[in-house]
């Protein structure tokens, strides 16, 4: 047997990609303590906490409007399943947290969807889970967004777009209401 054949099977690791945005980032540098573009391991039995208190939180946001502990992420395996999940829990008494428009009050928690937008205050975080098999740890990979996440990835407009490509909002702003005409009429 060759060394290649005897080598242990490589285990894939669950990775949580998080892209952060705040409108005042350039002025206030609230993400300066985050380690961007480098994967970090978080032990499976550890809770990844995000907030202002650097003694408690692994991911520190330098902003007095952020709670000492804003929210946490816990890695776990579903009962009677081999599926690994991440749970998000709001730990702020003052600020509500939204996950894909689901509002979480203090101590509310939910499973983190595989792709979602987390919001609190002016903060926007795009979270994307890359599934893996490791039971000992998961990884985080942080990114910094230059533009608002909600504008980049928001749901398509709920207003229908007509076949001719002319939006009805143009007519409404001029005080005119569009009328439908049958193509077969002279």
UniProtKB/TrEMBL annotation:
GO BP annotations listed: innate immune response; positive regulation of canonical NF-kappaB signal transduction
Pfam family, one: FHA
GO annotation, cellular component aspect: cytoplasm
InterPro entries the UniProt entry points to: FHA_dom, SMAD_FHA_dom_sf, TIFA
Compartment(s) of residence: Cytoplasm
Broad class of where this protein is predominantly found: cytoplasm
Alphabetical keyword list: Cytoplasm, Immunity, Innate immunity
Residue span, FHA domain: 49-121
Assigned protein family: Belongs to the TIFA family.
Name of the protein this chain belongs to: TRAF-interacting protein with FHA domain-containing protein A
Protein source organism: Calyptomena viridis (Lesser green broadbill)
């Amino acid at each position: 047997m060759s060394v290649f054949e005897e080598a242990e099977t490589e285990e894939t690791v669950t990775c949580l990609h998080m892209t952060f945005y705040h409108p005042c980032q350039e002025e206030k540098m609230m993400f300066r303590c985050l380690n961007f573009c480098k994967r970090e391991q978080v032990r499976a039995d550890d809770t990844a906490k995000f907030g202002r208190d650097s003694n408690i939180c692994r991911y520190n946001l330098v902003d007095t409007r952020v709670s000492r502990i804003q929210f946490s992420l816990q890695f776990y395996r579903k009962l009677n399943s081999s599926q690994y999940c991440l749970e998000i829990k709001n730990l702020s008494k003052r600020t509500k947290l939204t996950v894909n428009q689901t509002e979480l009050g203090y101590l509310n928690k939910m499973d983190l969807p595989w792709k979602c937008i987390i919001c609190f205050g002016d903060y926007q975080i795009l979270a994307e889970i890359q599934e893996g098999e490791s039971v000992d740890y998961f990884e985080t990979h942080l990114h910094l967004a230059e533009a608002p996440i909600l504008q980049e990835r928001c749901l398509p407009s709920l207003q229908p777009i007509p076949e001719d490509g002319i939006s009805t909002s143009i007519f409404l702003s001029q005080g005119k209401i569009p009328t439908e005409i049958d193509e077969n009429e002279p």
